[in-house]
Amino acid sequence: MKISINPFFWLVIIGALVTGQFLEIITLFGIVVIHELGHIFAAKSYGWNISEIQLLPFGGVAKVDQINDSLWEELIVAVAGPLQNGIMIFITMGFQRIHIWSPEWTTFFIEANMMIALFNLIPIVPLDGSRILKVFLFIFLPFRKAIMITLFISFVLALFFFIWASGFLFIQKININGIVLTFFFVYSNWMDVKQVPFLFWQFLLKKVDDKPKRNIPAVLIIISQDTTVIQALRLLRKERYHLFYILSNHGELLKVIPEEKVLRTIFNKKELHQPINHIEI
User: Is pLDDT of 43 > 80?
Assistant: First the structure.
């Protein structure tokens, strides 16, 4: 598992050395590491394969090699980081109560954990909040659409973050760190947009490999006979089983196609743009 530190973090370290706040920054670094370890342990407990960990000033990003079909696992892994901050706050309060830590250091440590946890819950890519938002969207929306909406919300919030950091909104001084973070957010969003086709096909191949979930209520997808196979595949959701109801141009039911029949067409690219009605049951 590769571990890397984002260049922006080194800028923060240099700034800490210049301003004499090295101890505080090292403490923040330790909090960030523990925050990210929460994600790692949760992911490993579910057997996820983590290819890289990138540490950021406000948290970290764990890159996994495979698409997981469990919404519950995704949610637990996403909240595991902020949960560590909550645990550290609880332990810190205990240390103060038994007079191990001074009130000043306790206040700093609690505020640092709260800042990192709350900041990470903002739904901007690559923060934890965007992953949590994506999980809830997966419940109600198709896989590809949920990702695109998450990225759209992330980009809009990054724009508002830039307006705040620039000082235009509240007529304040420019926040240089905030400006740099904004560019990082925009870059992360752009990279994720480029990854959408890859993630979509990973999701489809995962569904092909998994056994159909026939023990859960099926999602009924009603589409016209002229709908192409690729358009139908874009309607699939995570952790659900689907039945495609094909209607004629006059509204008559022509056939019902189970999802596994549609998924098999991904191995033949020529069939992806044909009408789904051509698939034999």
Answer: yes
